[in-house]
Prior knowledge:
Layout: H1 6-17, H2 31-45, E1 56-63, E2 70-78, E3 83-86, H3 96-102, H4 111-114
Amino acid sequence: DHISARAMLTIFMLFAIRTEASVLRMLEGSPQTGLHDPIVKYLEDRNVKIHLGTPCRELVHELDPESGLPTRVTGIKIGAKSELKQFDVVIAALDVPGIKKLLPKSFRQYDTFDNIYNLDTVPIATVQ
């Protein structure tokens, strides 16, 4: 319900005080080399499989037999044929419109997931 603006205010103050602040240099080199590649290597060294560019059609999940509420995601249906892939862990990195499309309706029984549908979004663009 309450979100702190402290981080953003700190950044704004940095820009206001220092003329060179527009060049933060938080990452030396390209994001691909300095950030993405090391993360991918770390995950692949641990036998994690990363599926990029593969449309996720549906989250497959278990239901609590007593309440009928979703309890645990066990896999996803991917690709044009909705092929079932089962996993120990599923991590979905999506924007708000994307997660709204992916979440099963049964998840909306939980306030945390239902609140996602109340989020407003604005388009953004970055130039690097």
